[in-house]
Amino acid sequence: MMLEPERAATLVAERLVRPMPGGVAGPGKDWLVRRTLEELGIHCESEANLQDLKGFMIASPRGAEIVISERLGEDERLGVYAHLLAHALLEQVAGEDELPGSFYSRLEYVEGREPAGRSNAERHSEMVADALAKAILRGRLDGAPMYSYRHKREPARNRGLRPRLGRFWLDLCHRTSLALFWHSPKYQKLRARREMSALIRRVEGLVKVAYAC
Amino acid sequence: MADRDEVQVARWSAIRDRVGSCLREMRVGEMPTSQARLSGDLEDLGYHVTQSMISRYEQGLLEQPLTLERLVGWALCCASLSAPAFRELLALAGYLLPWSVDDLSRFDRTLSQYRALPLPDQIVLRRKLLWHVLGLESR
Asked: Maximum CA pair distance of chain B?
């Protein structure tokens, strides 16, 4: 599969917080995101004939591509890119394999044109993707639980009971944070705050030192 | 006729009845697609297949082999297409769809979402799907 959503989301978030080349008169942020995705091998194009769709993503061993409606404004385009990446991240994290298999697709609908009768799970996933997309657009992926965007766990640095206990404790905290993120919009808001990210980094650092893990 | 063409024609002769009836089943399945609609949709994909050709392909009468591109295009234009039927059709034609069960269910989900879209969106999405599905491995 030619899609690395974690890498793409991280790079896009990093670049969005940097000052734009050329300042206000320079190209827009959507150009930057598109260029970043193209660099990562995700082909992006605009399409004039989309009606109910804002855009879509398809990935297969042939490559990954994003098609976006030409009618969207800059902010909307940014939102669609971020949403598509967020959904790909969630799919990757939910999957047992390293990558979401040989075929992946995601459609983003114009508001009010979504298919009727969406399941609770789909609506839930949409809400979480929304929070994750906001974190990407803010340029702060750390404003979301680590397990929502990071598929691979850090390898153990030390062996022994104490480091294992430390890793267990951290894993439990990350999982709890992810579960809260999935179920509570209030927690999503809280987790998006800089102070919260700083606190979590601090606690994680302390645990790693204390347990040598 | 070149050797390669002869081999292709012989191969097609051996499978055209089964492929034809499979294509017909796909077209007239749960959500039937008329020959006229199919012909128009294939035209949108850039393939010229007339209604009469559709009829003759379905009966296994046409000697001209149906290319992989047209075969996949045909399948994608049928409203009744499902991932297992698609896999079966390609297997009949000698192609392997290297997808897992999860991939097949994702493809099915995409197909059901795609069918609910208005025609212009369907055309755009279908072209892209065709490109991705054509990355198949030959058996």
From this structure: 46
- ipTM for the whole complex: 0.83
Mean pLDDT over each residue of chain A, to the nearest integer: 89
Chain segment A133-188, per-residue pLDDT in tens: 999 999 999 999 999 888 777 777 888 899 999 999 999 999 999 999 999 999 99
Structure tokens at A97: 């394999």
Contact between A98 and A151 under an 8 Å Cβ cutoff? The reply is yes
Mean pLDDT of successive 10-residue stretches along chain A, which has 213 residues? 84 89 74 95 95 95 93 95 95 63 90 87 90 94 90 78 92 94 93 94 93 87
Task: Determine whether A152 is exposed, middle or buried from the number of CB atoms within 10 Å of its CB (0-12, 13-18, 19+).
Answer: exposed
Parallel, antiparallel, or unpaired for β A63-69 and B137-138? unpaired
Q: Mutate which of B44, B76, B100, B106 to disrupt the A interface (most A C-beta within 10 Å)?
A: B106
Q: Name the residue among B100, B113, B121 with its Cβ closest to that of A51.
A: B121
Task: Determine the distance in angstroms separating the CA of B96 from the nearest CA of chain A, rounded to an integer.
Answer: 13
Angle at B49 between CA B47 and CA B53, to 5 degrees: 160
* Coil, helix or strand at residue A65: strand
The answer to whether B129 contacts A52, with C-beta atoms less than 8 Å apart, is: no
Residue-wise pLDDT tens digits, B119-137? 999 999 999 999 998 876 5
Q: Residue B99, SS3? A: coil
| Sequence-distant (≥ 6) Cβ neighbours of residue B121 within 8 angstroms | A49, A50, A51, A52, A53
What size, in residues, is chain A?
213
Q: 3-state DSSP call for residue A160? A: coil
Q: Pick the closest to residue B68 from B40, B51, B92 (CA basis).
A: B92
What is residue A114's three-state secondary structure? Answer: coil
Of B102, B123, B129, the CB nearest to A49: B123
Structure tokens at A133: 């997309």
